Amino acid sequence: MMPKVTIVGAGHVGATAASLLLMKDSADVVLVDIAENIAKGKALDLMQMRSNERFKSTICGSGDYADTAQSDIVVITAGVPRRPGMTREDLIGVNAAILQNVLTSALPASPDALYLIVTNPLDIMVNLAFELSGLPASRLMGMGGVLDSARFVHAIAQATEAEPQSIEAMVIGAHGQGMVPLVSRATVKGQPLANILVNPQEQIAAIVQATVDGGAAVVELLQTGSAFYAPASSIVVMIEALLDCRSDPLSVCARLEGEYGIDGVFLCVPTRLGPHGVEQIVEFDLAPNELGQLQRSAQAVKEQLDKCRLTLSL
After folding, report:
1. pTM score > 0.85 for this model?
2. 180-197 pLDDT per residue, tens
3. Which CATH class is domain 145-312?
4. Domain 4-142: which CATH class?
5. C-alpha span between 15 and 11 (Å, rounded)
6. Distance from chain centroid for Cα 266
7. Which pLDDT score, from 0 to 100, does residue 314 have?
8. Measured between alpha carbons, how far is 208 from 152 in angstroms, rounded to an integer?
9. CA nearest 68: which of 7, 24, 116?
10. Does the active-site annotation cover 276?
């Protein structure tokens, strides 16, 4: 029997993630949206390509959370996307209300599921979801670090003309301006990044900036929406790790309880995922400046979360 994955939000990110899961035959999918006919229409469209792509997985669209019952994984993409000039933080109020409504409906239907939050601002939403849901920290996580890491790899590939498959690189910290690309651990064909660059200091600064601005660059070009192909792919990478117990760590927004000198906050850090959710937070030996940046990123998330609680009366 196929695993059952519910994706809440039939927009570009949710529908693209659904299509990737189907074509990989990773899971049966329920695509849920308040606009029920949008979810049903996209599900029907995807089902009509089964004979071409030859996948066995199925998808149904719905506006009723009863159809999501007993899901193994629930992915929440629902929310308002960024527009040009907006930061992820500008979305807090409206997306927090959407998140609360989704959790109220999804939790009774799938109380034992793993919950993957994608809604922005990612770090704030995952922390709020923890407080609103009552879920154990191991069964709640956020997608942001996998996406930022993919953008980091792309920036390195652009600068070095190396194949992405030959690059190892990870971004941790908040999914936004507080992200921390781990330059000290980045390698190309096994060689430290700094060793293969002509002007390391200048080029690394440009690579880091391109990584931090990766999402905003897409928003600026699209004008009417935000990135969805790379986010959808990053969701699927995490789902496959949850289902297949992938051994190598991914950058996952997970709850820290003393690791890296940080306590009581969800933040993107190296994490091993498996059938029980967050299996282990891996503590890399970070350069002192990177550890300092990560701890400052955590403090910024905590301060923003405190303001958010006051604004939302939580």
Report:
1. yes
2. 999 999 999 999 999 999
3. alpha beta
4. alpha beta
5. 6
6. 13
7. 58
8. 7
9. 7
10. no
